[in-house]
Design a protein that fits this description.
Blueprint (H helix, E strand, L loop, with lengths): L1 H24 L2 H136 L2 H15 L1
Length: 181
């Protein structure tokens, strides 16, 4: 209300000065109505602004306070996320070292497993080779015995043929026939 009164006083002083000027030039009446019109317009605008502005400004203030509150929450969330990222980054070095140690242990275990597997395969192949050599030795001995027997039979046949005379043949056949009867 004080401002409206101050504004009205200021406008009336301006109107008074204008009226003083207008009366000298002969257009005082017209200028006075112009100033009255301006004062009436300013008073109406002042009244409307005074009536409509406080709720508008209050709503705008509420909106601004709400936005400030929301931005504070967003900032807190961002700070929390940043702290979490910082914490993860701080633990990242230790985690990388742990992963390296784990992979080295796994690599050593895999190397050991492969070495054991290779040794088992070599032993298996060695055993299989010994069995095959043993089997080949047995087969060779059997073949050698068969060959020796063939040679012995062949040699005995030669000796028998050499000693066999027609009289000896007759004696053998007669003895065979006697045994059959």
């Amino acid at each position: 209300m004080k401002r409206a009164a101050q504004l009205a006083l200021l406008l009336s002083l301006g109107a008074g000065l204008s009226f003083a000027e207008g009366s000298e030039s002969g257009q005082g009446n017209l200028t006075l109505w112009k100033w009255a019109n301006v004062l009436l317009l300013a008073g109406g605008l002042g009244y409307l602004i005074r009536k409509a502005a406080p709720p508008l400004f209050a709503a705008r203030s509420q909106s601004i306070l709400k936005d400030i509150s929301e931005s504070g929450k967003i900032r807190q969330d961002a700070d929390a996320r940043a702290a979490e990222v910082e914490r993860r980054l701080a633990g990242l070095e230790a985690e990388i070292a742990q992963l390296r140690a784990d992979s080295q242990r796994e690599s050593q275990a895999e190397t050991q497993r492969l070495a054991s597997h290779t040794a088992a395969e070599i032993a298996k192949i060695h055993t299989q080779a010994e069995q095959e050599i043993g089997a080949a030795g047995k087969a060779a001995r059997a073949e050698l015995k068969r060959y020796a027997a063939e040679l012995a039979v062949g040699l005995a046949e030669k000796k028998i043929r050499a000693r066999m005379t027609p009289a000896a043949e007759d004696g053998l056949v007669r003895g065979f026939v006697r045994d059959l009867k």
